[in-house]
Design brief:
This protein is mainly alpha-helical. The protein is built from 7 helices and 3 strands; from the N terminus they run H-H-E-H-H-E-E-H-H-H. This is Winged helix-turn-helix transcriptional regulator.
Length: 129
């Protein structure tokens, strides 16, 4: 097997978490275990096929754990692995930068951010008072 060569370390990072959906999936998993159906519900723009593919790749890279429960109907959950948890500070930084960028470009972040558990409007209003 030939060893891979990178020009800069960030290439290795992006090879694992790059693309449109992986960081979004990982951000949701930083808040705990999720079933595939939960992820699909909170990420309405992703297709089932793409979600399954991205989860499989993240599992193969050791970033997420797939937990299968032996029950009927079958139940599967995903969580960050210990190794995947080491990405939390990176993901938090990306979210913070994205929020600053949204405010810079649009002024009101709620004009473009969907309300969900990661973007609660009520919590923001309480903290402003």
């Amino acid at each position: 097997m030939t060893k891979k060569k990178y020009n800069i370390s960030v290439e290795a990072t992006l090879e694992v978490i790059g693309g449109k959906w992986k960081c979004v999936i990982l951000c949701h998993l930083t808040h705990g275990k999720r079933r595939t159906s939960d992820l699909k519900r909170i990420m309405p723009g992703i297709t089932q096929k793409m979600l399954t593919q991205q989860l499989r790749e993240l599992e193969q890279d050791g970033i997420v754990n797939r937990i299968s429960y032996n029950q009927v109907p079958p139940k599967v959950e995903y969580e960050l692995s210990e190794y995947g948890g080491s990405l939390k500070s990176i993901l938090d930084s990306l979210c913070a930068w994205g929020e600053r960028h949204i405010i810079k470009e649009y002024g009101d972040k709620f004009a473009v951010l969907e309300e969900n558990e990661l973007n609660p409007r009520e919590a923001e209003l309480v903290s402003i008072e």
